[in-house]
Structures are given as structure tokens and as C-alpha cells.
Specification:
Largest sheet: none
Strand content: under 5%
Distance between the termini: 38 Å
Number of strands: 0
Shape: globular
Order of helices and strands: HHHHHHHH
């Protein structure tokens, strides 16, 4: 997983997606192993940055909360938070809309906070954890480049001191 996250070949992203679903083979024997692998794969998909991953990350982040015992619910929540974190690496309308859906439908504070942080990271905007505010921002900017992260103060500083 660690090595694949750095490969920019499209096949690497597909292998990571397959690994996410194949980790379910551990569910009966070692649920913790399955959850750990799946969270690592989700993080790796974000680092990899291949747009192929957006559909999978979106589906996981927007999945309804899983029922069952507390342990299963926590593992499900951990995966949904990992997917929301990974979506920050994709400054695309589809990824941002998935995070707004999390804000609109989710009650869990940790997941809502992660979705807000990802939206802020992806856009450079400092809006609150309010689905309507983010939806208005996304819909008012019909330009897809509007989702590109604004340069941070550090980016501006390094540009200023860099030599030609």
C-alpha cells in the first residue's frame, strides 16, 4: 500500500481500490486487520491523487452509517473519515459535492469536522461546517478552477524569496 500510493500509473489506483474491497476477506477472522488495511488504502488513494479514486472515496464517505455493535460502527466511521480526508486531495467539483453531502446528512461531529477541513484544504476558503454555505460557494463558482486551492502564506513567501 505504501509503495503503490506513490506510483502515478493508473493501474496503481485500481490496485489500491481492489485492495480496499479485497480486505473484506479478513472480516470473519480479523475485523481489526480489515479496518486497518481499508483505512490505509483510503489514505493511499488520496496521496496517489488519481481521479479514478474519487468515485470510490465518494461512495465510502457518503455511505449510510453501518449498524451493529459499537466496534463495527467505529470501524465504519473511521473509514468514512479516512475517505473524507482523502477527498481533500482532489480539487474537483465531484469531490467537493461529496463532502457537502456529508455535511448535509451526517450527525457525527468528527466526520463533519473532517469534511469541513477537507473542503477548506481543497478550496482555500474558511467557511464553517455549514452545508448550505459550502453549497452556495460551490454553485456560485461555475468555474471548475475555482476549487483550486488558493496559495497559502508560505507559498507566497517561498515564491517571493525564490531566485529566477
Amino acid at each position: 500500500i505504501d509503495a503503490l500510493q506513490h506510483f502515478k500509473d493508473t493501474r496503481a489506483a485500481q490496485v489500491l481500490i481492489d485492495a480496499y474491497y479485497r480486505a473484506a476477506d479478513f472480516k470473519r477472522e480479523r475485523a481489526e486487520t480489515m479496518a486497518t488495511i481499508q483505512c490505509q488504502v483510503l489514505a493511499a488513494l488520496g496521496v496517489n491523487g488519481n481521479p479514478l479514486a474519487v468515485k470510490t472515496l465518494k461512495a465510502i464517505a457518503n455511505a449510510p452509517p453501518e449498524g451493529g455493535d459499537d466496534k463495527n460502527r467505529q470501524q465504519d466511521l473511521d473509514q468514512r473519515i479516512a475517505a473524507a480526508r482523502a477527498l481533500a486531495h482532489f480539487p474537483q467539483y465531484e469531490a467537493a459535492e461529496a463532502l457537502v453531502t456529508v455535511l448535509r446528512t451526517e450527525q457525527d461531529v468528527a466526520l463533519r469536522n473532517r469534511a469541513t477541513e477537507s473542503l477548506q484544504e481543497m478550496t482555500g476558503e474558511e467557511l464553517p461546517a455549514d452545508a448550505q454555505a459550502w453549497a452556495d460557494f460551490l454553485h456560485q463558482s461555475a468555474n471548475p478552477d475555482a476549487l483550486a486551492k488558493k496559495p497559502s502564506l508560505a507559498d507566497k513567501f517561498f515564491k517571493l524569496i525564490s531566485f529566477p
